[in-house]
Amino acid sequence: MALFDMTVCADLGSAATKLSAHGKVSVSETRAALDPENCRRVLAVGDGSRKLLGATPAYPVRGCVSDIPLAALLLRRLALDLLGRRSLFGAELLLAVPGAATGVERAAALEVGCEAGFKRTRLIDGLLAGALGAGLDVFSRRAQMIVNIGRETLSTAVFANGGVISQSVSRTGSTTVDRRLMDHFASERRLLITSRTAEAIKRSLDRPAVSVSCRDVSTGMHTVRRIVSHELREAAGPALALMCGRIAAAIEAAPPDAAADLCDSGVTLIGGGALQYGLAESFERRLGIPVRTAEGAQTSVVMGMKECAELGAGFSAPPRRALYGEKRG
Question: How far are the Cα atoms of 50, 52, 56, 57 from residue 35, in angstroms, in the given order?
């Protein structure tokens, strides 16, 4: 019997944690509910944590892992739920991290896997795995670009011949649009909306108008307003321009030959933040090159990692520069 009879692939994001194992994929909120009288007591994790009214919410990932014990507990419980088991015995973890992650961030990621109970934790380039999951040919001689838009980060990578040419990470994620929408409602309409409402608005801009649940600053009363989508798209414009500027800077930083290839191959968007309505079209107008959103953008990374896992035990022939390190429990 092999030492590791299963591999759990994990993409631990600020907003959602995506797991894949044994042909099953799960997406759960990266959130925990803590006892307000004892912050060390975890009442629930994942999607179930939002149902506990009065509990103190905690978010263990903010761009990078900021609370290792809580992130490990969340990862362990979600993995056990996915596998339908009571133990992680014989399981290894393949965890996605940005290629431009610092040594401290990679060490924190390895520590999360170890504390979660996995006997071995290995790190893989999340962008390269995301490219595989998005259906791109990472071994093509022509350069291609992948952009992962998370809640608090925007990661880019240009790759060709199975290797990464250049990578970048900026703290400009989809919350940039959320904050812009919240500021617009507060300053222009004297209304307060939550980040969760702003997230729902971004995905509903295909409608002529959007019904927004908010609080009137003048009266303090809850109300529902119907806002035309054109106004909301204009309000989000500056945030989209900022995100597009980060992508443009990454293209300019690429070697001239690779940048020329991108004029034809374009940019592929992955991540939960890429699901905003009209995002790819907006970037395409601003950049002047083809931009598309991958099918199944939110789970592209774990699907690509699953493809890597199926290449063979031990990853004897992974894409170049894909694996960064490992740690045994």
Answer: 13, 10, 6, 9
Q: What is the pLDDT of residues 223-263, one digit of tens each?
A: 999 999 999 999 999 999 999 999 999 999 999 999 999 99
Distance CA 131, CA 147 (A): 9
The domain limits of the chain are 6-129+299-328, 136-173+236-293, 191-233
CATH of domain 136-173+236-293: 3.30.420.40
- How many C-beta atoms lie closer than 10 Å to residue 122's C-beta? 21
Cβ within 8 Å of residue 121, ≥6 positions away: 92, 93, 95, 109, 110, 112, 113, 114, 326, 327, 328, 329
Cα–Cα distance, 155 to 171 (Å, whole number)? 9
Do the domains at 6-129+299-328 and 136-173+236-293 have one common CATH topology? yes
Give pLDDT tens digits for 81-133.
Answer: 999 988 888 889 999 988 778 888 899 999 999 999 998 899 988 998 999 99
- How far is Cα 159 from Cα 167, in angstroms, rounded to an integer? 9
**43 vs 326 pLDDT, higher one:** 43
Residue with tokens 């004297």, as numbered in its chain: 190
Q: Is 6-129+299-328 a domain of CATH 3.30.420.40?
A: yes
